[in-house]
Design brief:
By secondary structure, the protein is an alpha/beta fold. It folds into two domains: 2-17 and 232-418, Alpha-beta prism (UDP-n-acetylglucosamine1-carboxyvinyl-transferase, Chain); 21-229, UDP-n-acetylglucosamine1-carboxyvinyl-transferase, Chain (Alpha-beta prism), CATH 3.65.10. The chain has 14 helices and 24 strands. Strands 22-23-1-24 form a four-stranded mixed sheet, covered by helices on one side. It has a four-stranded mixed sheet with strand order 2-15-17-16. Strand 16 (273-278) and strand 17 (281-286) form a beta hairpin. The structure holds uridine-diphosphate-N-acetylglucosamine. Uridine-diphosphate-N-acetylglucosamine (UD1) is lined by residues 22, 25, 91-92, 120-125, 159-161, 164-167, 188, 192, 305-306, 328-329.
Length: 419
């Protein structure tokens, strides 16, 4: 197992953002909807992509990955079983369910279970697919489904916490091959869902309104192979914005889609940064003094829950009191205790975190608990006195491509060592 050793750093220079993990994963699942070859470029070389490759291989696809481009081809040995040993390591694999039901008429996909950021149910996925006509039972931890034919339906997909990204993806993919028209009301509007819609359209699906809360899908009989370029990873870009803020260092963050980061840019300006956008680059220059802010995580276009931990690290060094309200995953606060071990003063109460800014963070041995929490500890380490050691960096390897190389290129003192 690896750990990161990090020292207080000043950054400057240019960071190039990779393709989006959360866009690539459902698009990989969508290739199950066709018997033809798909070519997907600008794919990040990270563990979650490797896991999804294994799942597609188990399901009978041949996958060639050169670290940048995926070529996914059919084979003659098809399976419909996505086993627990793979699904439990990555919840996004549950979005194979919709394509399997629609294309292969049956599926046995392990339920992903909870994770450190909360309970994470899949009721909306199951509701949506049942409404399309799939018969689904839960048995021995698996979701077992069959469907002779799927039929379009008007489906309300809102849940207790609003829209669901992967439930929208699952239903959208299945509805593409259903008979008749499906309307998804309260669809997730995230750029990743919009990109999936564009990918499905390239395959020949008839989809309207992707990226809005109301998506219409006219089912087609067959989908073709296609080529697709993955959009930039807005969460990786937001993480580097947080790194710039916490180290009070200017950065150019390039190869991004700035429109996908409006809420993050607004908050960063409120905290205290000059931000200039030029085409696909964000130039960020932190000011000499920062102000505390209130952050509420919400579905897109609200502030992303996947950047909550990183911005908590930033706010822990901002004089005054900031309030963070987590509206997507009310238990996503595993990083609070670790940041406090570094000298932060954060109190959690239910879905709220009250962050009282301190003058300094101090390096400590800290434990990464999930992907985004580990990113928060890394950037906290860049601003902390002395040495920080972040253990269990396999969490960060799941979702960030070459994070330590990218940070080192802009001057960070971060080193990967054996734990
Ligand atoms: C996706 C992202 C994840 C991000 C999350 C929220 C991927 C691979 N992962 O996860 O990084 O943190 O969106 O932006 O794209 N919910 C239900 N029932 C369901 C499904 C979800 O109640 O059937 C709830 C969840 O518990 C949560 C909220 O809906 O409170 C949003 O979750 P959802 O959008 O589904 O997250 P994911 O798609 O799993």
């Amino acid at each position: 197992m690896d750990k990161f050793v990090i020292y207080k750093s000043t950054l400057s220079g240019v960071v190039k953002i990779s393709g989006s993990k959360n866009t690539t994963l459902p698009i990989m699942a969508a290739t199950l909807l066709t018997d033809q070859e798909c070519k997907i470029s600008n794919v990040p070389d990270i563990m979650d992509i490797r896991t999804m490759i294994k799942i597609l291989e188990v399901l009978g696809k041949q996958v060639i990955f050169d670290g940048k481009t995926l070529i996914i081809k059919p084979t003659k040995r098809e399976s419909v079983v996505a086993p627990y040993r793979l699904v439990r390591t990555m919840r996004a694999s549950f979005c194979c369910l919709g394509p399997l039901i629609a294309k292969r008429k049956k599926a046995k996909v392990s339920l992903p279970g909870g994770c450190v950021i909360g309970v994470r149910p899949v009721d909306l996925h199951i509701k949506g697919l049942r409404e399309l006509g799939a018969e689904i039972i839960i048995e021995k931890g698996y979701c077992i489904a069959k469907a002779k034919n799927l039929h379009g339906k008007h489906i309300y997909l809102g849940g207790a916490f609003g829209s669901s990204v992967l439930a929208t993806a699952n239903v959208m993919m299945a509805a593409s091959l259903a008979q008749g028209q499906t309307i998804i009301e309260y669809a997730a509007c995230e750029p990743e869902v919009e990109a999936l819609g564009k990918f499905l359209k390239k395959m020949g699906a008839q989809i309207y309104g992707e990226g809005t809360p109301l998506i219409k899908i006219d089912g087609v009989k067959k989908l073709e192979g296609c080529e697709f370029d993955i959009i930039p990873d807005r969460i990786e870009a937001g993480t580097f914005i947080a790194a710039s803020l916490i180290t009070r260092s200017p950065l150019e963050i390039k190869e991004v889609q700035p429109l996908h980061l409006t809420s993050v840019i607004e908050i960063s300006k409120k905290i205290g940064a000059d931000i200039v956008i030029k085409d696909k680059s964000i130039f960020i220059k932190p000011k000499s003094s920062f102000k505390p802010v209130n952050i509420v995580t919400l579905p897109y276009p609200g502030f992303p829950t996947d950047l909550q931990a990183q911005f908590m690290a930033v706010l822990s060094l901002v004089k005054g009191v900031s309030l963070i309200t987590e509206k997507i995953y009310p238990d996503r606060f595993m990083h609070v205790a670790e940041l406090n071990r570094m000298g932060a003063n954060i109190q959690r109460s239910g879905p709220y975190a009250i962050v009282e800014g301190v003058d300094k963070l101090y390096g400590a041995e800290v434990m990464a608990s999930d992907l985004r929490a580990s990113a928060a500890l890394v950037i906290a380490g860049l601003a902390a006195e002395n040495k920080t050691e972040v253990f269990r960096v396999y969490h960060i390897d799941r979702g960030y491509e070459c994070i330590e190389e990218k940070l080192r290129q802009v001057g960070a003192k971060i080193y990967r060592e054996k734990q």
